[in-house]
Amino acid sequence: MRGFLASSIGVTCAAALALPLTPPALAATARPVPASEAATTARPGPHAGTPATTPAGRRVAEPYAAGSTQSLPLEPLTRNRATPSAPSSAEQGLPRRAVRHFSLVGVVWDDPTAELHGRVQVRTRDAGTGTWSGWQDVETHNADHAADPDTTERASDRVRGATAPLWVGDSDGVEVRVRSGAGHSAEQTPDARDLPAAPPLPSGLRLELVDPGEDDGASSGDEEESRAAGAPNAETSTLTEASTANAGLGATEIAALSRARAEQEYLALDPGGLTEQQRQAKPYVGPRPGIVTRRGWGANEGLRESGFRYTKKVKAAFVHHTASGNNYRCSQVPSLIRSIYRYHVKSMGWRDIGYNFLIDKCGKIYEGRAGGVAKPVLGAHTLGFNSNSMGIAVLGSYGATKPSNSAVKAIARLTAWKLGLYRVNPKGKTYLTSAGSNLHRKGKKVRLNVISGHRDGFKTECPGRKLYGKLGSARSKAARYQGR
Question: Which enzyme class, named as a word (predicted)?
Fold first, then answer.
């Protein structure tokens, strides 16, 4: 009897796990920049040192406590040498100024296919101390993190080009400069006439300042960005009841499971999709790790588009770094993820956060794009290879910094479980068909490691040299977790 009860409980939990843990958002709207977000000078942040600069104090004082984005158009910083009266297109930015509180910065522009060849740097003022930081570089090569070409998400007129986001912590002042690739050096060189012309900067450059807001545990949209309820589409109608029921559990974290329980989950998740031979064969599924849900990190479900999008299966996992800097505490991670989520949706025009999962440097795993952690949710993480894959982003920058052992172990634990649900060996190879990237032409069948780095599908530095060098270890660990 005990065995029957345990098995029944396992099947019930597995069925719930396959469901999205968040209520579907209401209909999305196109993103003109709201007037309340576009202008900050009319409502400057308080001076550092006043009571409102503490997070708790300012949330009471400010009406936009659920999170907000300030979007500021950049201005020419220099004049054209040939035509002094005309502004230069080689350097834009904003002089030092006071703004509303924010914790994450990025730069966006109109054309998502345009590249920013140059350098983006920011300085920020700490809201608690009033101290200005030094200049910090913002990663400009970010076009490789995107929905696949020819998809509805990619074709949306809301999509913009963008830098990677940079986490700066609670700040109330900013200065930014954007310099074209050769423009700033040409100004400083006597033989500037011998240098190639600086590539023009993309049009419509804007500085995005993101305030993640406070985690209220059940955010459903702030006043500024609330949706008007409309007729749900067919997909939303199908999933609404199940999604809402699961969210009603108030789950902030999905509990870890032993390997034996995870194997029960595997059999319960897709009973009709398994052949008799597969049902009789030994499953290789790693123990399910604990996963913080979207509700757990405080996702505002009113931001994303309604419904969910799925691919057929999960054949590969692409590992990324967010390139958002390593200057965060693990206790700040929910705020950091809310900031990235808002940046992806409100600033870049995506339907949801791009990654399927995120991992912090303490090794904690977080649910990313909505749709159910056990399901093949279609992400926007590896341009050209989002179908039949999942994207795992380690929070931080790992070009010169080694990832923590905890983060590498978390990659292994997550992939051992999720890939195991789809009968995939983490140490194996697989084939994916390219939807088009700068490394593999559209339609090409590409042989990849099951656990690959972003740079294997696209010519990019991501996930950083130091993290990429740890993927072999993650593959071996994941296979051991699966019992191989």
Answer: hydrolase
Listed in sequence order, the residues at least 6 apart from 214 whose beta carbon sits closer than 8 Å to its beta carbon are: 55, 59, 65, 66, 298
Q: pLDDT exceeding 70 applies to what percent of the chain? A: 71
Residue 284 token pair? 């290789």
Of 71-80, 162-171, 185-194, the one with minimum mean pLDDT is 185-194
Task: Provide the phi-psi class of 443: left if phi over 0, else alpha when psi is between -120 and 50, else beta.
Answer: left
Cβ distance 180 to 118 under 8 Å? Answer: yes
With beta carbons less than 8 A apart as the criterion, state whether 129 and 177 touch.
no
Interatomic CA distance for residues 319 and 470, integer angstroms: 11
Nearest to 98 by CA among 198, 19, 175: 175
Q: pTM, whole model, 2 decimals? A: 0.79
At position 97, the amino acid (one-letter code) is R
- Which residues have CB under 8 Å from 208's CB, separation 6+? 69, 70, 71, 105, 106, 107, 108, 162, 343, 347
Q: How many residues does the chain have?
A: 484
Tokens of 19: 């469901």
Non-local (6+) Cβ contacts of 282 within 8 A are: none
* Residue where the block lists tokens 């929070």: 395
Task: Tell which residue, 298, 294, 300, 299, has the closest CA to residue 220.
Answer: 300
CB 432 within 8 A of CB 315: yes
pLDDT digits (tens, 9 = 90+) for 25-60: 333 333 444 433 343 333 333 333 333 444 444 333
The C-alpha atoms of residue 349 and residue 161 are separated, in whole angstroms, by 9
Give pLDDT tens digits for 303-361: 999 999 999 999 999 999 999 999 999 999 999 999 999 999 999 999 999 999 999 99
- Burial (0-12, 13-18, 19+ Cβ within 10 Å), 478: buried
311 class by beta-carbon count within 10 Å (0-12 exposed, 13-18 middle, 19+ buried)? middle
Residue 326: other Cβ atoms inside 10 A: 14
Place of tokens 């949801």: 352
